[in-house]
């Protein structure tokens, strides 16, 4: 079975991202096509990029980078759960991506963005540019949550809707279409090298 890593990118105090990340995690598990793991960047706690060598070389000198590489490398697909901060993606997510290169390459990524009126779509667009730079394949299909607070109940649980579920289903189906194709491409590249 293919491996899907869901990455929760908000690390700030009082964040609402865990409610959304837990919802998409449960949704992905029910979808049934992936082994699913939820990674919280707050718990990973990467420092600001501190590796002297280019990530393509994979000559990591810090244990936190080697641990991050071991966490991300086995993935066949990703979902980034990303809020919008000042028209962009969280710095924590950009930093986490910048630590690695090959571990991200030729893997599909879906984005669950959230915010106010814009639903985090500007964050998602910025994130897609960064994903392209490390040779990930960002999907057109995603989940964009406007005024997301209205969907979080008093217990901190995200309550979805039919429309949100349809977006999640489309994204999951597309991830499942791309993941085996790109895995085959990665495996072919290894046999040729």
Number of strands: 6
Shape: globular
As a percent range, the share of helical residues equals 40-55%
Contiguous helical run count: 6
Structural class: alpha/beta
| CATH level-3 fold name | Rossmann fold
- Which stretches are poorly predicted, pLDDT < 50 over at least 5 residues? none
Q: How many domains in all?
A: 1
Give structural notes.
- The chain is of the alpha/beta class.
- The chain has one domain (2-192): Rossmann fold, CATH 3.40.50.360.
- The chain has six helices and six strands, in the order βαβααβαβαββα.
- Strands 1, 2, 3, 4, 5 and 6 form a six-stranded parallel β-sheet that branches.
- The radius of gyration is 16 Å and the shape is globular.
- The two termini are 25 Å apart.
- The relative contact order is 0.18.
- The mean pLDDT is 96.
